[in-house]
Amino acid sequence: MDNPTNSARVDVTAPNTVPAEIPTVRRPDLLSVEDAKAMKLGTMADLFMAHINPGQMHFMKLLGFHKVKVERAEGMYYYDQHNRKILDFFGGFGSLALGHNHPRILAARKQFQDENRHEIAIAFMSQYAAALAKNLATVSPGDLDMVFFGSSGSEAMEAAIKLAERAAGPDRPKVVYAINSFHGKTKGVLSITDGELYRGQFKLVDNTVRIPFGDIEAIERAFRADRGIGVIVLETVQGGGGIIEAPDDFWQKLRSLCDRYGVIMVCDEVQCGYGRTGKFYAFEHYGIVPDITALAKSLGGGKTAMAAMIAKRDIYMKAYGSPKNAMIHAQATFGGIGEACATAIEALNVLYDEDLIENSAQTGAYLLDRLEEMKARYPKLIKDVRGRGMMVGVEFHDFSQAMPMVVKPMIAMLDDKLKGSLPGFIGSALLRDHGVLVAFTEYNRNVIRIEPPLIATRAHVDEFIDAFDAVLAKGVVRIVKDFVASQVG
Ligand SMILES: Cc1ncc(COP(=O)(O)O)c(C=O)c1O
């Protein structure tokens, strides 16, 4: 019988099936950063269609974005492939408080890199996250002291509603939200984001109660009728809704109602916060402090993705205060990463060193005055001008109202379908003929959103108004004709 232990040992060498010169992992044909920088407009469009969002290209073409390749951006301006300056009165929906590539932000980031600082904040404690959290607690009123870091407004708002839900407790799981609200597109916050466009046919959380924004009676009725309501979430100023503020006495009344009914109050400041309305938080205009708030967008200094949820300490402790539940809430892999925190620390310092909040209030008031002049000059086109600081909306009349008398009744039948087209034509003319960029709003598509960097001066406002005036002076028929010509040309 063979004894395997006695059998002669045979050395078996694995056949070398792979010749040494052929690497096991073939290097794919990758584009480099230099390839990206040198890319032609046509290739950019093809790749966008092939890999990012073919449907979105339709809108890019309508607005003329497909003809612009941004080569660099500084301060208030983009510079395109022809070195044409584009005045940025869109500001990334409020993401560019400090403008593009602020030199102090670039320097802070470069220094951080040159010193080989660390990024990951989920192993060792991060001195950068600690300093940024301390800064945010310092600029936040009351005992808004506890900070959670994420990288998008949606993530910060997810954290806000999760914290609120746990603090409210299992007997009060219902969340009140407003008509025309926008809190993000991830699935949790989508449940409190209004509007069929975004909600699509997703299966959403159904423990929600929808109320008209700014309607204190409706909220009181809801609180009284349903003790299951534990949380209310509102944007302090509705951005996507078309730059809408609640009546001045609304917030004080809401604070009292929330205190009386023990409902946790969440103010979403992702768009209206960070000095945009002329105070650090928009809720400071109304002399109230919510239980939880959230910031994102400009928090990253216009250079990085950074978001924060900021909560009152007692609410936080109720939900996550013990070692047993602390990790439910701990940050995601990139929450509070080093260079993003360093950038946000520097950005907050710049915001105050350069008095940008004050500038937002003052230059914003000037912008509103100049827009009121436009409204007086073009009453058939402009229906309303509103906002605070540098969060401003210009609402146009329905298309038919702007048309000559003879065609008015015919066009009126199409007003609903045509909503958004007049601002679209005007926005595309501003970009095409004057190198000025503005934004649109999600729900009321007759509104142009104006959210320039908070570094904007009166001269920038004048530049914008001159362009706006020149477009409106053409009259609606010429505006439409020029738009049609631009699409076929
Ligand atoms: C008020 C408000 N909340 C939340 C969000 C979501 O932020 P993000 O797009 O960074 O996820 C936005 C985005 O525009 C917003 O305006």
**Percent range for β-strand residues:** 15-25%
- Please write the CATH class name of the largest domain: Alpha Beta
* Span of the ends, CA to CA: 91 Å
- Shape, principal axes of CA atoms: globular
Arrangement of strands in the largest sheet: 4-12-11-10-7-5-6
Q: What is the typical, i.e. mean, pLDDT?
A: 93
SS element count, helices = 21
CATH domain fold name of the largest domain: Aspartate Aminotransferase, domain 2
Largest sheet: 7 strands, mixed
Count of DSSP strands? 17
Number of structural units classed as domains:
2
Quaternary state of the chains: single chain
The helical percent reads 40-55%
Structural class computed from helices and strand pairing: alpha/beta
Q: Would you identify the CATH architecture of the largest domain?
A: 3-Layer(aba) Sandwich
How would you summarize this macromolecular structure in one to three sentences?
Pfam families: Aminotran_3 (PF00202). By secondary structure, the chain is of the alpha/beta class.
Report on this structure.
The chain has 489 residues and is an alpha/beta fold. It has 2 domains: 74-99 and 356-488, Aspartate Aminotransferase, domain 1; 103-353, 3-Layer(aba) Sandwich (Aspartate Aminotransferase, domain 2). Helix content is 44%, strand content 16%. It has 21 helices and 17 strands. A 7-stranded mixed sheet has the order 4-12-11-10-7-5-6, sandwiched between helices. The protein has a 4-stranded mixed sheet with strand order 1-2-3-15. A 4-stranded antiparallel sheet has the order 13-14-17-16. Strand 8 and strand 9 form a beta hairpin. Helix 7 packs across helix 12. The longest helix has 22 residues, at 356-377. Bound molecules: pyridoxal-5'-phosphate. Residues 93, 152-154, 157, 182-184, 235, 239-240, 268, 270-271, 296 line the site of pyridoxal-5'-phosphate (PLP).
